[in-house]
Amino acid sequence: MPQQLNRQTLERLMQYYLCINRDFDPQGNQTIPSARLAQLLSLDGTQIRKDLAAIGVKGQCRVGFEISRVAEAIRKALGFENVFRAVIIGAGHLGGAIAAYEGFARYGLQVVALFDIDPGKIGLNVGHHVIQPLEKLEFVIKDRDVHLGIITVPADAAQECTDRMVKAGIKGIWNFSPVNLKIPPEIISRHEDLSVGLAYLSYHLTHNG
Ligand code: ATP
User: 5 pLDDT band (50/70/90 cuts)?
Assistant: First the structure.
């Protein structure tokens, strides 16, 4: 098994990947010195070399890194070449926006179903999806071999939805609800509390803005 990468390393690798895709041709044969990448990302060159070495990419003296090799190694390390199926619970504004957004497909995310309990929403279209009743959740998770559950319901409904998904065999939870969920340790989970990001902005706007 390859070296386990910690959260900070994974996040920096994603920054390198985004930078390469934004500013270079990830399939071309260009090279980039780590110092240039460091400058573009306001990071430290040594850190970049260390992170890339951890996924098996070594630069050449005075030449730097082959961009296509870096992009491919990051895709492989982060698992973007795999397809992983997801369901979304909560077809409100946020859940609907995630369901309709096609940009996550390049990272392997495939949303297979969108669920809600509101009878007024069931049967409506969001992007390519028809909103389904929550009763079908367990069937769809098992039938479509769903790996990831995306939670975009209000706080008071989030734990129950999570428990149902865990029981149905989900492997990961991406939680957008503003509540800390109880999730068994073997389930990989990530909490995106947007108010944490807002607090950062608020602090700087208040004190430095
Ligand atoms: P709305 O479009 O209804 O105004 P919203 O974007 O303001 O929603 P929320 O109130 O957070 O956001 O609700 C998100 C969605 O979650 C709604 O569509 C709601 O019907 C749905 N929902 C609430 N409770 C549950 C539940 N237990 N299971 C599934 N969906 C739920």
Answer: very high
Find the 154 Cα to ligand 1 centroid distance in Å: 6
Mean pLDDT on 70-86: 94
What is the per-residue burial (b if ≥16 Cβ within 10 Å, else e) of 87-102? bbbbbeebbbebbeee
How far, CA to CA in Å, does 113 sit from each of 89, 132, 172?
Answer: 9, 7, 16
**DSSP per residue, 170-199:** --EEEE-SSS-----TTSEEEE--HHHHHH
118 CB within 6 A, ligand 1: yes
CA 154, CA 158: separation in Å to the nearest integer? 6
pLDDT of residue 1 exceeding 60 = no
